[in-house]
Amino acid sequence: MQEITVGVVAPAYVNIPLWVAQERGFLDRRGLRAVERVIGTTDGVTSALRQGEVDIALTAPEGSIADAVAGGSLRVVAGLIDRPPLSMIALPRHRTFGDLRGGKIGTSSLREGTRHVAQRMLAGHGLTYPGDYDFALEGSHVERWKALQAGTIDAALQMIPYDYLAADAGFTNLGPVTEDFALNTVCINNHSSERKVVTHFLQALAEATDWFRGNVEESAAIAAARTSVEPRYALRACEALAADGVIARDLRCGRAALAAVIEAMRSSGLIPPDAPDPIAAAVDYSYLA
Predict the structure, then answer these.
(1) Which of 82, 175, 227, 261 has the fewest CB atoms within 10 Å distance of its CB?
(2) How many CB atoms lie under 10 A from the CB of residue 273?
(3) Which domain holds residue 151?
(4) Is the same domain home to 9 and 69?
(5) DSSP-assigned letters across all residues of 133-175
(6) pLDDT by residue (tens digit) across 21-52?
(7) CA distance 257 to 283
């Protein structure tokens, strides 16, 4: 049995394919044992992958795309989430997006993941960055929930089922993310990743994803045990993840989801105007063949 380390931002429900693959033996059958390393931020996961501290990363794709465009060795080899299961949760006194003007928005990174999704969502409601609000680097959705409870931020995108928890606790749910955006992907370092291992890992994830869609209640039980979340919330979260369009089909990011990421990166200056095609440089689906 070969042990591999999988870097993740947090014990988030978007990682359910990995949990199912571990619990149902899909990795064991391929001679792999995956150990999760929770790092806390998307930047931290990207750095750990670059430094060879983790073998595979389940994280936002921006860091790997930026690295590849700059000539680095990081690559996106599969997609997991095409429609982010996130909602904008605000302090109870904020009832509209307009109330967030002048406030602080919690995020896990200033360059990746929820920062871009939040900025696009707020722009759709007439708020521009940095003129109308500031970002506060708080970490994963678990840490953002703590910050909301402490009142140190005004709002943050919250992952299922934490948006349900927040609404039931009296916080304001301003609405879910509705656009496609590649939020969670499988990334590797070409310099340190063994091709056979990556291929077998992705085969296990694909099998686990199919099993999840047909066994939502059993998957919810696995997720509840991993996160200590009440079973009723875990089931709601898994039902939302099983909806069409959320999890990438065949572990390949949808075109619209990837295009949204590239657009966000260009807008924020993470990809130079004269850079090579970022998708051609960074995305390698040959491991799925």
Answers:
(1) 175
(2) 6
(3) 86-176
(4) yes
(5) -EEEE--SHHHHHHHHHHTSSSEEEEETTHHHHHHHTT-EEEE
(6) 999 999 999 999 999 999 988 899 999 999 99
(7) 13
